[in-house]
Amino acid sequence: MHRIPAALRRGEHGIWVRTSASWYGGKLRCTAGVIHQRRYQSQVVRDGRPFRMAILGSGPAGFYTAYKVMQGIHEAKVDMYEQQPVPFGLVRYGVAPDHPEVKNCQDKFTEVASSPDFTFIGNIKVGQDVSLKAFANHYDAVVFAYGASKDRKLGIPGEDQLKGIYSARDFVGWYNGLPAFSNLAPQLDLSDTAVVIGQGNVALDVARILLKDVDSLRTTDITDQALATLAKSKIKRVRVVGRRGPMQVSFTIKEVRELMKLPSVAFEPIDENLIPSNISSLPRTAKRLTKLLMDGSMCDMAPAERSWALDFLLSPVQFLSAGGTTLSQLEFARTKVVGSDPFESTASVEISTDRHSIATSLAFRSIGYQSEALPGMSGLGIHFDIKRGIITNDYYGRLLSPTHEVQVGRPLPGMYCAGWVKRGPAGVIANTMEDSFATAEAIIADWNDNAPFLGGGNGWETLEGEIAVKGARTVSWEDWLRIDAAERARGKAVGKERVKFTDPRDMLNILD
After folding, report:
1. H-type helices in 261-395, by residue range?
2. Which residue among 55, 88, 414, 469 is least enclosed by CB atoms within 10 Å?
3. How far apart are the C-alpha atoms of 425 and 370, rounded to whole Å?
């Protein structure tokens, strides 16, 4: 065990750590609620002006950070920049259309945006319309909260060469109306079996959308294009494949329960040898999940119209074709859980020489998302960890330069991160909220403690003119409300909450 570095232990730069925190392998791990919530609003100003902050990204991480900072620093000015013409990021384009309750956080975000101290600037591409250096020159602080724009690849033969192989992220973006994937056109009518590689919540989202009665989706905000494609789908079976066993899955109880309750969809029983004999001895969450898996679906296999299965202990080796350019088969290597306790949630596996094949013309890769560095980061001394897909930070959201280790505790002045680009693409929106609040608390503490920040300036008031010269067409919050109203009107005409625009040009035409 390592001692907590002195800089962290004594609270330099506004870091407050409980004595229950400890260091493991150079990483700080703490109990929940490590950073004490300060219940006051700072009255600190510098050079006679209020705190001004830029947030890059308008998803949950960006909005929760904005909300907390505006609560904690008196008259803080927040300018939020977004690549898309519309806000809400993952909530709009990542949450499944049949999960409208998850999108209720948009109400809180709209409340934040209604403040006169908040400005939304949409349809802005960093590195093209504005440089990172410009943000550094015109703000006290910059928060990177732009999420994960890529997905992880398997890196096996056939992955990039054969048709019929899709990224789960692209598929989710397609049915949710993300403009970049509006032309994905997945071929769901070439096979009756789909294989999803990965066993997280996104993998189960994909399985559920493929198996669900398409008529039950018609009143959701799923795109018309997706509805038409799903209506022609021939998929009857979905196999969700993982490298490890049922005790190491990443999906949550809620997601698997939904699949178990789908009408006329059966679940293929799993091998009882993969389950501990004494389920009652498991931790509460693991016990509930295991019992759910063992109880199975409400529909029996024999009369079921459709079915799904969880295939365990299989590691993908290659995608194969029967002589053409389209996928026809997946080859897997069988794996074995190793270690003293094969039912431990963190247990690893070793790959054997035994092979197993599944015939299909449709496969989805769902092994995680990945963030990318933004143009100009290195020029500002920002280190992006390519392997982990995050910006190097002190676990509280303060960015660290490449020359400093976490233990040194010397962050880059005024540079912060929140959400997936801070900790990696894991967890649900509630986890992002907690994470973003922690970053906001670090910002508030640093400002109150007179820690070094960026040079400050007038933010968007100055950048607006510079960006206009480049001919960029920006979108304000008021503009978004007009786009929102148009989408809702389109939806009302067909009995849906909204019909999304999937082409940015159509969104901008509403404003002309």
Report:
1. 284-295
2. 469
3. 7
Radius of gyration of the chain (CA): 24
Q: What is the pLDDT of residues 69-118, one digit of tens each?
A: 999 999 999 999 999 999 999 999 999 999 999 999 999 999 999 999 99
The three-state DSSP-derived secondary structure of 131-171 is CHHHHHHHCCEEEECCCCCEECCCCCCCCCCCECEEEHHHH
Determine if residue 164 is left, alpha or beta; phi over 0 gives left, psi from -120 to 50 gives alpha, anything else beta. Answer: left
- Judged on CB neighbours under 10 Å (0-12, 13-18, 19+), 24 is exposed
What H or E segment, with its residue span, contains residue 426?
Answer: none
**Cα 282 → chain centroid:** 29
Which element (helix H / strand E) includes 71?
A: helix 60-72
Tokens standing for residue 363 = 């496969």
Cα distances (Å, whole numbers) of residue 394 to 28, 29, 333, 415, 418: 9, 11, 38, 11, 11
3-state SS class at 507: helix
Q: What is the pTM of this model?
A: 0.88
Q: What is the pLDDT of residues 166-224, one digit of tens each?
A: 999 999 999 999 999 999 999 999 999 999 999 999 999 999 999 999 999 999 999 99
Residue 7's H or E segment, with its range, is helix 6-9
Single out the residue of 423, 398, 337 nearest to residue 148, CA to CA: 423
Residues 203, 155: Cα–Cα separation, whole Å: 18
How would you label 365-390 residue by residue, b for 16+ Cβ within 10 Å and e otherwise?
A: bbbbbbbebbebbeebebbbeeeebb
Please check whether residue 398 is in contact with residue 176, taking contact to mean a CB–CB distance below 8 angstroms.
no
Closest CA to 59 of 92, 31, 34: 92
